[in-house]
């Protein structure tokens, strides 16, 4: 690779050498995705679709954020 | 650079992005929300959902005047909660996906691959879904269809995000087979085809009724600006943090190589 030769003065590391193995990434991704999805559902909390014991508190609290961030609300 | 580095950087960038989104939403967006609610209260769009709310779905109360949370709280602390939560979640996820992208997106260096991941996130999660199902102000939409509209929105976002992931896989395959430029074109085409088909297949939602067009336009622009501010800060801050870590690591390795050569 011409790249490796030309940059040998500064560093011998090519971008591909940096790749993190997928088996190390997988658990982070699974947890991250599940967590992100639960927050998104909570913010968009449609009454009936998910029931928060106390009723509509979260729904009302984040109401304006939902409208302005493009979530369906009304 | 480890997965942890990327996650921490992403969460930090997301926090900053949440603050930026709050500032834009509060200054540009809240006046539009207030105008829409004033209209709603005045009964200009009466048959929309106040009556639905009272009769059909009592649990889905959107009567802003007698709500459990006051308007003053909704437009400040409530809004901040929403933008910060979404900012941190999207920032963290963008950080993790940048860790996946590291060294896997052609010959892009860490800063460039991170910036690309953030750009793809903005396009697939916010910009493209906005084009199909744009944000709607309070007073628009019927309480009876909220469940189906939410499902459609999440469904479209899911197709768009999965579509961009598939497009990246196509781009990498084509880049290996030919080279970088055809690979990029193949990926972009694949994503465009996926979202175009999805946009045609997903039903149209039109519940605007007689809502004033000028308020609607201002509201949607402010909503889009809020989303763009959030993604711009996620992208810029995450890229800057990743680049700083990368430069440090590179300096250490150069030093080590120099010492070994002596
Ligand atoms: Zn609402």
Automatic annotation (TrEMBL), chain A:
Q: Transmembrane helix among the record's keywords?
A: yes
Q: List the keywords (alphabetical).
A: Membrane, Transmembrane, Transmembrane helix
Its transmembrane ranges are 25-43
Q: What is this protein called?
A: Unannotated protein
Q: Which organism is it from?
A: freshwater metagenome
